[in-house]
Amino acid sequence: MVEPIRVLIADDEPLASDRLRLLLARVAGVATVGTAIDGTEAIALAEQLTPDVVMLDIAMPGLDGIEVARALSRLAASPAIIFVTAYDQFAVAAFEVAAVDYLMKPVDRLRLDRALERARAFLAQRGLASVPATDEPRFLDEFWASDLSGLVRIAARDIDRVSAERDYMRLHVANRSWLIHHSMAALEDGLDPALFVRLHRSAIVRRDTIVGFTRNPSGRWIARLSDGSEQPVGRFYADQVRQIAGR
Q: I want to staple 39 with a disulfide (CB 3.0 to 4.6 A). Which of 7, 68, 90, 96 is the partner?
């Protein structure tokens, strides 16, 4: 019989912690082993209870979730980290500390199931759970951006291109766009390279939107996109043209 995945919850909001515990109680093969109300208690309980998974809020008194994740990564049996937060701006920091997923509050059951599957894959790779390992790489599959109605979920696969605007990145989806606080380098690492390609220091494009390439009078490549727009190719990214064109 496969042992259940043991989950520790860390959240300073009792209602959020209770809701997450109720959701987890409905998932087969999962057992909640404890709850913490701040970062310091989360680390102490993780050392004491050795959970397989820690579900962490980010904004907590004292040590925040990112600091807790760094501390837990140094444990001999480091748990899988799933961030659960009301804020979208920490996604890149979460990716940098190798979190297996990043859930927005209120947590959706389907997204919770997907996060737990990723946790199982993480644990299988480290021999911490008797589940089959998967070869699924951990790429960012969604973003949360602010607009006048609140927060909007944007699926990564729907993004046509990303353009840099100072300290922000603009996600272009059809005829709409949203600003998020990420870096271009982090997005290049986080987006699936099978779907996206960086063509310029300030631009990432979804591969299937590229319909052709032309050269400008100075010999620089220009990508023609399916929406009729053009994206200059930076001189350091010219190899991407040859790779895409199979040359």
A: 68
